[in-house]
Amino acid sequence: MSMQKAVDNSRSSNAGLSMDNQEKLLADALQNVRQHAFAMKRVLDQQSVMEGLKHAANMLGELRTSLLSPKNYYELHVVVVEELHHLELYLTDEFEHGRGSHDLYEVVQYAGNIVPRLYLLITIGHVYIRANELPRREVLRDLVEMCRGVQHPLRGLFLRNYLLQCVKSLLPDTEEENQEATKTGTILDSLDFILLNFSEMNKLWVRMQYQGHTRDLQRREQERRELRILVGTNLVRLSELECVNVERYKTIVLPKIMEQVVSCRDSIAQEYLMECIIQVFPDEYHLNTLNEFLKACRELSASVNIRNILISLIDRLTAYSTRDGSQQNIPENIQLFDIFSEQIAEVVKSRINMPPEDIVALQSALLNLSLKCYRDQFEYGNKVLENTRKIFDNIALDTQVQTGTPAAKELVKMLKIPIDCYDILDVLKLNHYKLVLQLLSYRERHTVCMYIINSILDKETIIPTAEQVTQLFELLLTLIIDQTDSPLETSRQTITNEDFVEEQNLVARLYNNFQAPNDPDQQYHIIKICQDTFKNGGLERMRFTYPPIIMQAYALTFRYKNIREQDEKWEKKCQKLFQLCNQLINTLTKLETNDLPLRLYLQGALAASEIGSENAETIAYEFFSQAYTLYEEQAGDTRAQSASLTLLIGTLEKVTCFAEENHSTLRQSLTQAATRLVKRPDQVRTLLLCTHLFWSAQRLNESTQKSEQVHDNEKVLACLKKATKLTTQIMDQSVQVQLYNELLNTYIYFFNQNLPDIDITLLNSLIEKLQNEMSKISSNENDEFIRNQIQKTFDYLRQQSQLEKFQGLQINN
């Protein structure tokens, strides 16, 4: 006894020292293996079987070592098995040619050491079974039992793995119990063999955890994970047996496996083996053994990560049920959702200390199952969301999940699942979705809301009713109104904040998806709901959210006009829409810039003119006058005033609903405004634009109620003369030449329009003036553009000079 203890202590000491010398130990062992293998092959070539077995046993003796790490032991084992294969081939050939010895199976049992003895027994037993020298059933039972003689975890695992590899093609896979089967065996013998081998290997694998010092625990766990495939191979072999049907799996295979998994009480083994069961056996087997499998899950060790096991099973069955786009793979008698829902609830209940993120992950998998497998049964998804909310209410009543925590991240993933599976109209049917969203802090709510909007825009989902729009806004309140838990100060939620601008642009784009294509009144209700909601968002948000409402309201007036024969109240409805727009634009005038509300007012004037309702002129004049007032408030910003005045002139030129009184007032006001601009070039250009207000602009003839062009020759000429006079007063020669060219183009236009008092003589004088002034400007890059523009004007005039109307035109080459 004392001698054995000394040997064990020595081995333990050598094992500790060998960690720094693993490569040398492996190299020495491999060298010995090759020497013995060479000697074995040489004597086998000389037909000396007994000598060959002796050398083989010496070679296999290298596998008795306890000094190598699992990785290095694996390398050694691979080389040994490869060399041992030569002996197997030799013996097989001997039996095929009738020269095989019939007592080798008994002879090798006298080998001195158990490890070489069992490797040789397995090799020879394999040959004997294939040669029909011994009954298969007895040999298989004998081998798997004798392997119990090796109880060292590492040596035992590799030995049994070698046994499994050798008999892989020899396992009986038949149903019949007859005289032949008495020798060869049936499927039941194969099951007994693999299940026993699996049980013993798992015990050896678990035992590795408890060998050595506690300081090496982490290293041992890593080594165990590297060896897990050796144990899992047994389950793969079971799944490959054709005679293992659902019934046999349910009554024999799964109970035996679960018995071993549960009884080992080792978290690493339980996690791996449960995952292995899920992956290697067919989906139909899992469907028919759900309750048994899930019940076993509840009996696993408390340190097992049950979350990953259950999620893996749920995800696999979800994928199976929706394979090939169908949802008919699940038998009607299997209530998949109900089973998982009940069992997960029991698991959560039995594990008091389960982290919140694990609970949410399980609920997420269950939600994914319900949405994909029971797509039209929204009550399942609602049930999952409701249970999730209740779980968190029980954990921390009236408290949000802290931002950035694993639980918060899992909740975000969970809330994205319905968005990915459904369009938003179906998501709105999940009544408890909003309640789960409210569990999140601002940052996570913001993430989910942005995800929802992007999904709607990407899928181009149309929200057709006011009720659905209201429900959607309840989900998106984080982006629509200020939040008390927002980390951003109100002062940072401005147009200078890029993130704020991005989110509000998305909200604005979302409005284009609010469409009731066949019901204008429903569209009106949507507009009102949007107004009532967006007005609580603050002025900085209104900058983005109000313009889409206003433009949609303008578009709705045209829809009412198109159904005027079916709706006698269409004009009143249009008036309400214009009043609404006026109210919204008036709110936007509080912004620091007047450009946006001015453009919206002018767009309203155009819309009112085109609608042509009874009070169109009144509406258009109100909108136009409001725009003109905003223009006047831009005093001091010359560039903005010039651009705004250009918009005003262009809009008035297109509006056709003004009678002479209003039209005259507006065009005179705009002309006077043009002369009041600060910069001379701006005055000239806007006066040239004003000429069209007195010529091609249309006014309403009150007697005929039809629009007609103004054609006021005197006013046109007055504007042209004023512009010409102002041009002569400009000091910058380059700008002056450019304006002369624009003047000439305007005169050419009205000459083509047959305006009296504009003739060839007047054009020639302008051409001469332009040519003289052009010769005075420099030839730098800036002026080159002006020269090109003038040259294009002259080219046009040369072409026109061929016409009779332009006879007498004088242009120098």
TrEMBL record:
InterPro entries on file: Vps35 (IPR005378), Vps35_C (IPR042491)
Keyword vocabulary terms for this entry: Membrane, Protein transport, Transport
Entry membrane topology: Peripheral membrane protein
Annotated compartments: Membrane
Main location: membrane
Keyword Iron-sulfur: no
Pfam families assigned to the protein according to its UniProt record, in alphabetical order: Vps35
Keyword match Transport: yes
Protein's GO biological process: intracellular protein transport; retrograde transport, endosome to Golgi
CC annotations in GO: cytosol; late endosome; retromer, cargo-selective complex
Family the entry assigns: Belongs to the VPS35 family.
Function: Plays a role in vesicular protein sorting.
Protein name per its UniProtKB record: Vacuolar protein sorting-associated protein 35
UniProt source species: Rotaria sordida
